[in-house]
Amino acid sequence: MAPSVASPSAGAIMALLFPLLACSLMAIASAGNFHRDFQITWGDGRAKILDNGQHLTLSLDKASGSGFQSKNEYLFGKIHMQLKLVPGNSAGTVTAYYLSSQGPTHDEIDFEFLGNLSGDPYTLHTNVFTQGKGNREMQFHLWFDPTKDFHTYSILWNPRHIIFMVDGIPIRDFKNLESRGIAFPKNQPMRIYSSLWNADDWATQGGRVKTDWTKAPFTASYRNFKADACVWSSAASNCPSKKSSTDSASDDWWNQELDFTSQERMRWVQNNYMIYNYCTDLKRFPQGLPPECSLA
Ligand SMILES: *[C@@H]1O[C@H](CO)[C@@H](O)[C@H](O)[C@H]1NC(C)=O
After folding, report:
1. Which of 108, 137, 257, 292 is flagged as catalytic?
2. Which ligand 1 atom sits closest to the C-alpha of 115?
3. Is the beta carbon of 147 within 6 A of some atom in ligand 1?
């Protein structure tokens, strides 16, 4: 557990002030600091928080990768992170950035960046797990080189949609189709996780291209974390207020969905940059495509 929430007196104060704090917590959560919001979980010094918490790097060498996770758990939110991926020959490396709850029936919302040879495109792999079941992969190439600069990768998760965005452009919309019998993540709080690791048995060109360890250490960088999100604490969310909220526009993620223009942009991405869609993989699902594929 995060040391910052271990103190019982802090817990007692929270309980007393909770109604007052609910709003301000959300505002505080907006300006991220890696020291305050995250903890390094593995990698024996390979993960580093720099510049007073404004910057984080993960690295991978032959002995180990590294990773971090958020101190908070969230139940719904709009979560942004800027990443700059491993440059040069990144074949075999995987940078995973995802939200996940715990346990055998966990929910999960995944971004994974699969490295490649210099000059060959990264693959952005996405997936959604509900109640422990995934198998909903969609993969993309990007319309820019994700190793040259920081780009923003966002997850909008509200009761009706999970929308994946890259630099504000939606690339995938997983809709709540519970009314049609398809589970949707809405009861299990999730933490943010990220890791950089070696997966050269499958990641690059189906595992044919191996990691070139003479190029190690491999490094990925993070900055500008921002969460407009419902923080889960003491088995409750600080967001019940949202349901009746008529707050400012910045809070509107709770009701956000894709308008016509955003749908057009998503279609542009999917038509031009999508390289795999489980919903069109008839070979993989000979008994029929997953039900959401014909409803989405
Ligand atoms: C690597 O580059 C090849 C050739 O352009 C491409 O087919 C593949 O999707 C790229 N990504 C990965 C992870 O192999």
Report:
1. 108
2. 13
3. no
Q: What is the pLDDT of residues 157-202, one digit of tens each?
A: 999 999 999 999 999 999 999 999 999 999 999 999 999 999 999 9
Q: Report if residue 272 sits inside a domain.
A: yes
Cα–Cα distance for residue pair 93/106, rounded to 1 Å = 25
C-alpha of residue 121 to centroid of ligand 1, in Å: 6
User: Does 4 reside within a domain?
Assistant: no
Q: According to the model, what pLDDT value does residue 252 have?
A: 87
pLDDT in tens, 67-107: 999 999 999 999 999 999 999 999 999 999 999 999 999 99
41 assigned to some structural domain: no
Per DSSP, what are the bridge partners of residue 124? Answer: 113, 140
Give the count of domains, the chain: 1
- pTM exceeds 0.85 for this model: yes
Nearest CA to ligand 1 atom 4: 120
- Determine, yes or no, domain membership for 250: yes
Whether the CB-CB separation of 254 and 246 falls below 8 Å is answered with no
Count CA within 13 A, CB hemisphere, residue 267.
7
User: CA 104, CA 97: separation in Å to the nearest integer?
Assistant: 20
Q: How far apart are the first and last CA of the chain?
A: 38
- Please state, in angstroms and rounded to a whole number, the distance separating the CA atoms of residues 179 and 35: 41
Q: What is the CATH number of the domain that holds 165?
A: 2.60.120.200
Residue 217: domain span: 50-295
What is the pLDDT, as a whole number, of residue 21?
A: 40
- The question of whether 108 is a catalytic residue gets the answer yes
CB of 127 shorter than 6 A to ligand 1: no
